[in-house]
Amino acid sequence: MNIVSPHLLPPQDRRPLQKCIKDEHVQIVGIYGITGVGKTTLTGEVAASMSNIFVDVVFIIVSQNMYGEKIQNKVEVAVKQIINGEKVLMILDESKYLSKDEAWILLTQVVGKKVETDAKLKKIETDVMEECGGLPLLIQVVGNALNNLKIMTHGISLSR
């Protein structure tokens, strides 16, 4: 499942990063810039467009409210794959998190007002909010995915 549309940025904006990632002599690529210029979108699009050349694509969101153990576990899995000679794309993204109220507003904007009127859906969305940890991109991605599913399917999606 692609979590980011491959058409948000023009292909010419992705090419330099794709070239660096494909270069066997390059092991680390840094992307930097001020907040809001599209660094996360760019890396997400490149990861989606290049996922077929990697055994795994690991997207680690580092934020003030993430537990270090969660991050360490993801890194450990990726490092084991790399040690075993597998090609892994690891993306570390520092992200600011939203307060519970801000996160709820964003999720409601993505999913729609039905989340406020349907008790079953509201419970599911509350669980999603906890799992997303206030990370805006994650809330948008999960919200978009849930927006297209029937309520009966939500429980299955959350347990995976």
Automatic annotation (TrEMBL):
<feature type="domain" description="NB-ARC">
    <location>
        <begin position="18"/>
        <end position="76"/>
    </location>
</feature>
<keyword id="KW-0611">Plant defense</keyword>
<dbReference type="GO" id="GO:0043531">
    <property type="term" value="F:ADP binding"/>
</dbReference>
<dbReference type="InterPro" id="IPR027417">
    <property type="entry name" value="P-loop_NTPase"/>
</dbReference>
<keyword id="KW-0067">ATP-binding</keyword>
<keyword id="KW-0433">Leucine-rich repeat</keyword>
<dbReference type="InterPro" id="IPR002182">
    <property type="entry name" value="NB-ARC"/>
</dbReference>
<dbReference type="Pfam" id="PF00931">
    <property type="entry name" value="NB-ARC"/>
</dbReference>
<keyword id="KW-0547">Nucleotide-binding</keyword>
<dbReference type="InterPro" id="IPR050905">
    <property type="entry name" value="Plant_NBS-LRR"/>
</dbReference>
<dbReference type="InterPro" id="IPR042197">
    <property type="entry name" value="Apaf_helical"/>
</dbReference>
<dbReference type="GO" id="GO:0005524">
    <property type="term" value="F:ATP binding"/>
</dbReference>
<dbReference type="GO" id="GO:0006952">
    <property type="term" value="P:defense response"/>
</dbReference>
<protein>
    <recommendedName>
        <fullName>NB-ARC domain-containing protein</fullName>
    </recommendedName>
</protein>
